[in-house]
Write a structure and sequence with these properties.
five-stranded antiparallel sheet; Mao_N_sf; Cu_amine_oxidase-like_N; Copper Amine Oxidase, Chain A, domain 1; Nuclear Transport Factor 2, Chain: A; Copper amine oxidase N-terminal domain-containing protein
């Protein structure tokens, strides 16, 4: 009986962990049927890549507040070569050292070896594959700007290498891979990334590699068993100094050399979380 109780407690703990972070840490296969229900046409939205107005054979549309565009057309406009696996319903786009993989109705995507959770899943519409414009563009290193006045979207690539590296870090810390690594380092059952502060962004004399150090301010929550079951609540706030390496490929793209699980994490501060006040 004790073994059964312990097993039941562990099952409850795992469920609470998943609920608290809102993430499925092992797999996330969304089984939504391809449908345009709830979608609106985006014909009145003007999309520019590097200030050039784009034309689309298959019309973009809005899904759950996100602009969806034809998969192959978007990747090719961004300079990628695209391969389609019909059996897996997966698109793989390659540009130099950067590989982006997305699957129909799947809520995760891979950018090289880093996993990201998607706000909206890729879908099949009238035989055409559609991808979320913002995620794909940002994964490609671009900045995506929305102008509400004229309903336009600007996809722009920054020339300044310091800003491009900073944008890469901003993307990586929002990834599922970084969340998993932070949970492992902190020993938390749930985490919340409060902010990051880039302290060093040093590009080597060759201009081909860079080392970035940033402070990650994280609220760590722990699961506690009591007479009412298992609860997860904030336990402490920590600040880790994180070191990551970058490199520039032949296509002038700045890419992550060390995945989140291989980055260096050094604890700098630890503050107990009391009455939700640090």
């Amino acid at each position: 009986m004790d073994l059964i109780r312990r097993s039941a407690d562990m099952l409850k703990l795992n469920k609470f962990r998943l609920l608290f972070t809102g993430l499925m840490l092992w797999s996330m296969a969304i089984t939504v049927l391809p449908s345009r229900a709830g979608a609106e046409e985006a014909s009145s939205v003007h999309i520019y890549v590097q200030q050039e107005l784009q034309q689309w054979e298959q019309q973009p549309f809005i899904k759950d507040g996100f602009t969806m565009v034809p998969m192959r057309a978007l990747f090719e406009k961004l300079g990628f070569h695209v391969a389609w696996d019909a059996e897996k319903q997966m698109a793989t786009a390659v540009k130099g050292g950067l590989t982006i993989s997305l699957s129909i109705n799947r809520g995760t995507a891979l950018v090289n070896d880093v996993m990201y959770y998607l706000d909206v899943t890729p879908s099949l519409e009238n035989g055409n594959t559609y991808m979320p414009l913002r995620f794909v563009s940002e994964a490609a290193g671009a900045e995506v700007l929305w102008n509400d006045a004229d309903r336009s979207i600007q996809i722009q690539f920054e020339n300044d290498p310091q800003k491009r590296i900073r944008r890469l870090i901003d993307n990586v810390v929002r990834s599922g891979s970084f969340t998993q690594a932070a949970m492992s380092v902190t020993g938390g059952d749930g985490i919340k990334l409060n902010s990051i502060n880039v302290k060093e962004n040093t590009i080597a004399a060759s201009g081909k590699t860079a080392k970035v150090k940033f402070d990650a301010d994280i609220t760590v929550s722990k699961a506690v068993k009591n007479d009412k079951g298992i609860t997860i609540s904030p336990a402490e706030t920590v600040v880790y100094e994180v070191t990551a390496d970058m490199y520039k490929d032949a296509f002038d793209q700045w890419l992550l050399q060390t995945v989140p699980s291989k980055m260096t994490y050094v604890l700098k501060e630890k503050t107990p979380f009391i009455n939700n006040v640090r």
